[in-house]
Amino acid sequence: MRRIGIDVGGTNTDAVLIEEGKVAGAVKAPTSEDVTAGILDSLKTLAATGVLKGKKIDGVMIGTTHFINAVVQRRHLTKVAALRLGMPASASLPPFCDWPEDLANLVRGGVWMVEGGHEYDGRPFMPLDEAAVSRAAQEMKAQGLKSVGISSIFSPLDPSHEKRAAELVSAVIPDAVITCSSDLGRIGLLERENAGLLNAALADLSRDTIAAFEKAIRDSGIAAPLFITQNDGTVAEASQARRLPVYSFASGATNSMRGAAYLSGLSDAMVIDVGGTTTDVGQLKHGFPREANSVVKVGGVRTLFRMPDLLSIGLGGGSHVELEPLKVGPVSVGYRLLRDGIAFGGKQLTTTDIAIASDVLKLGDKKKVAHLGTAVCKKVFDEAARMAEEAIDRMKTEAGDVPLIAVGGGAFLIPEKLPGVSKVIHVRHGDCANAVGAAIAQVSGECDQIFKDLSRTEALSAAQGIANDRAVAAGAERKSLQTIESEDMPLAYLPGNSVRVRVRVVGDVAGA
Amino acid sequence: MRLRELSLDDIESLAVGAWVLGTGGGGNPYLPLLNMRALYRDGHRVQLMDSGDLADDDCVGTVANMGAPLVGQERLTDSLTLARAVTRMEEHLGRKFRALMSMEIGGANGVRPFMAAAHLNRPVVDSDTMGRAYPEAQMTSVAVGGLTPYPLTAVDVRGFESIVHKVPTWKWTERVARKICVEYGSVAATCQPPRTGAEVKKWGIHGTTTKAINIGAAVRAAQRKHEDPVAAILSVESGKLLYRGKVIDVARRVTEGYLRGVVRFDGIDEFRGVGAHINFQNEWIVAYRDGQPLAMTPDLICVLDTVSGEAVGSETVRYGQRVTIIALPPPAVFLTPKGLEHVGPRAFGYDLEFRSVFSQ
């Protein structure tokens, strides 16, 4: 297996080649305004090292923060028609009802609510009002809306009304890009609908970005399929990622944790990813990040995305350092480190200057930081260690000492010994952990629905079958599938042994 | 007559405080809160009334949703349907309610009466019948008081309307209404058996909406100032901090239609090395520390997110969450022998003599 992993970060675009389970090459190139150029640069730099020569590449896996940044920064968003099936229920809480006003104003192209939807046990709640759907589609067409988000009550259980409505809308607007909320999983109408509407709002950006990624790979002369990394440490084929861009929202943090697992060979450990401005602390379980407990807000919108549970603190390689009284971070020089840091002729004392003064890093001009004595440097390192220790303690879920993997460009701030940590592991290529995580990503499938009148074992096995089929449909090799999460929740008050089951499986990319 | 108009900020606080008083159950009040925001945006306002201002022969409507919280996440509570449950009862009785009231201040039902009140332009009495959340209809102060357990109206958003005209006991109210609710799709808007002003004054648990608002306001203020929100709750309520820890295991199962199970914790900070667990039946029922009973119903056991101070529910509690457990004092009506018969540990199948953390 030979894969290229690319992390398109705010400062650098990193590329690594993983070959037969080893990092065969790793390079960094500055991220460009036009993403294509940065990716092309990094691929060319990687090729220039000679590691790619004449070899067949099985896949290029790209991790990007493009889509979440578009939502957070309110840029490149498409106007969306929201169509909800479920009247007369939920009428007082229409689509967009809990969105921040500025984002709603940008995205809300129109709201249509018609009869339809299902009950918790699969009975129809109301028959689908097909005539009303077609009328709504005519109105969308008249308004020039082409991106449509369709939601329906209990559609994770029975998506048939959403699928039928999508056909009816397509019949009126043949080039409509339609997101059905059932493609985004979970129970929770508003949150699922929100995810669908955000996804629909990214329709144009997603089409253009994925096309730019594909062009960059083509232009570099590499003949390999493109995959986009997802929030949960897995990948989706380019075509699916184009359809469901919201699933790649949090892939950066996930990739660095998965990369840490891979580089260290550990599957259960704490991970500390020290970047330029912030440090993320998370926990690996079975080689994947532990997920956040509940509702995740993206750009102020409540969603049910699978996101890693991370604690971020303002500590990094670019953190401002004040000596009297001692303070490290949270302000950082960020991407201006090589200009503003004292060792680089600038005026701002940073943690990187401290590392250069104490010979931890060989960078810049050491003479410029020679005035920083050993005692001063030790104080700063101790403060950084204290901040890291506190963050780790807050994220730990077990009482004993745990191993800690330190990655990221600022990992030099993490000492070899920390209280509450059995051992600190610094790994080779740890500064490219993101790109490594992208390169080793797998394919997943998930099932989250209610089963009735089945024993617990039968329900779990039915859910597993559905999740397996979904993973295979997403490009996984069936024989490599593994269940990494299995959760069942009996439903209070519901009759007939109703149980909600959530199963997630992962596997290697087919043909890899 | 003293009526107090609630601001939207009060209602935001009410939602946070009602979730704390939900003691693990009752459903998250987020969706009712969204409804209230929309109603206030449209110009509706609600007013809070002191129970002391009711005339003895006033008629009071008790509003609540029945059903599975999960269904409520898909079929979102509609304010007009709740209002219809109330007017349906008025049609049945042939008289108008002077005011509305909560059945259950804990959880989403702590906010729902205001959704009906906004449409019907009726004040809401600052009292309820549980002072928290409980899973069954006979676990109320009015059931402890032996008040009439009928009639009850149950309305579905599609226009179905049912009336439980007569039943002999509160257990039967629960059984028959539950059956209707399940047929509707496991969610129904209900108007509970009507009460007279005199009954509310004698058997209501008073000041609970104000209590929820105060708790919520304390949590929200602490969040804004980055202070300890749990300490903020304990500064407005005479509660006790019992434990701080992380969730290390959650086991859930359904028996007799309820969500039951155990959550296990490992201590942190000053509780490092101390184990704890809580048994639940929708709500937190008995908490144990190193195997010994620490707190039990009817004391309110509240599991809070240590960082945000917001409540954690038995349906959503998950591995790894960092929580603080506190106890709040129970309503006096549940401390009588009759009250303990309805809601003490034995009512939930525990062979334990009730011992309050507040009498130790």
What does this structure look like?
The complex is a heterodimer of chains A (512) and B (360). Chain A has 4 domains: 1-74 and 204-249, 2-Layer Sandwich (Nucleotidyltransferase, domain 5), CATH 3.30.420; 80-201, 3-Layer(aba) Sandwich (Rossmann fold), CATH 3.40.50; 265-426, Nucleotidyltransferase, domain 5, CATH 3.30.420; 442-507. Chain A contains 14 helices and 23 strands. Chain A has helices at residues 35-48, 66-72, 101-107, 130-142, 160-172, 189-201, 203-219, 238-243, 251-264, 337-340, 351-357, 374-395, 433-439, 456-473, and strands at 2-8, 12-19, 22-30, 59-64, 80-87, 108-115, 147-152, 177-180, 226-229, 235-237, 269-274, 279-285, 288-289, 296-298, 301-303, 311-313, 319-322, 327-332, 402-407, 421-426, 443-451, 482-490, 499-507. In chain A, the strands form 6 sheets. A 6-stranded mixed sheet of chain A has the order 3-2-1-4-9-10. In chain A, strands 11, 12, 13, 16, 19 and 20 form a 6-stranded mixed sheet that branches. Chain A has a 4-stranded parallel sheet with strand order 6-5-7-8, sandwiched between helices. In chain A, strand 1 (2-8) and strand 2 (12-19) form a beta hairpin. The model of chain A has no long low-confidence stretch (mean pLDDT 88). With 360 residues, chain B is α+β, with helices and mostly antiparallel strands. In chain B, the strands form 4 sheets. Chain B has a 7-stranded antiparallel sheet, with no helix packed on it. The radius of gyration of chain B is 19 Å and the shape is globular.
